[in-house]
Amino acid sequence: MISKGWRESVNLLFYLAYTDVIQFKSDNIMSFELHPQLAKDTTVIGHFPLCVALLHKDNAVPWVILVPKRANLKELHHLPMQEQQQFLLESQAVSQALEATFRPDKLNLGALGNMVPQLHIHHIARFKDDVAWPGPVWGNTKGEFRTEEEQNELLGRIKNVLSLSSIFQKA
Fold first, then answer.
1. Cα–Cα distances in Å, from 59 out to 3, 23, 50, 62, 77?
2. pLDDT, position 113
3. Do the Cβ atoms of 98 and 32 come closer than 8 Å?
4. Are strands 42-47 and 169-170 parallel, antiparallel or unpaired?
5. Binning pLDDT at 50, 70 and 90, where does residue 171 land?
6. Fewer CB atoms near the end CB (10 Å): N or C, the chain?
7. Nearest-angstrom CA–CA distance, 103 and 96
């Protein structure tokens, strides 16, 4: 049985964390900037209410990254609960778009952040015949980017499906 004192302590910690996040949010919405490495490696697909959607240029696999438009954000649980729920809606839209567009064998979702500390969540369509299967894509692809024409073609395909979502705006 959990003691009353312990439960009150946990509730206080959650309250303090939540109020800190609310202050964090209000101070940092307007100062959002995309990390330079993400800007270099991706093309903007469009925007959701919370996140910017990016298409990675790596030609190994279709790879979409969602970045919450909040400055200095490193962890998903630092968002207020309402924004965490919004993120899940946006992630679901991206996942469904990748499945509908590419029919992958598996979707990989992940937030690593070891090299780029800005919170960004990878949505990667994986295939049994891709260069890195069954391992992770990080460090296991050739690191070659798509041509501009190939990137634009893929952007168009993904935008067309994401545009079916009422919460998505094309770039």
1. 54, 40, 27, 7, 31
2. 85
3. no
4. antiparallel
5. confident
6. N
7. 10
Q: How would DSSP label each residue in 56-115? A: E-BTTS-EEEEEES-TT---GGGS-HHHHHHHHHHHHHHHHHHHHHH--SEEEEE---SS
Over residues 96-133, the pLDDT tens digits come to: 999 999 999 999 999 998 899 999 999 999 999 999 99
Backbone angles phi, psi at 56, to 5 degrees: -65, 145
Place of tokens 């954000």: 73
Domains and CATH numbers, the chain: 4-170 (3.30.428.10)
In whole angstroms, what is the distance from residue 69 CA to residue 71 CA?
Answer: 7
**Closest C-alpha to 69, from 115, 130, 17, 28:** 28
Is 89 a residue whose pLDDT tops 50? yes
Tokens standing for 43? 């093309």
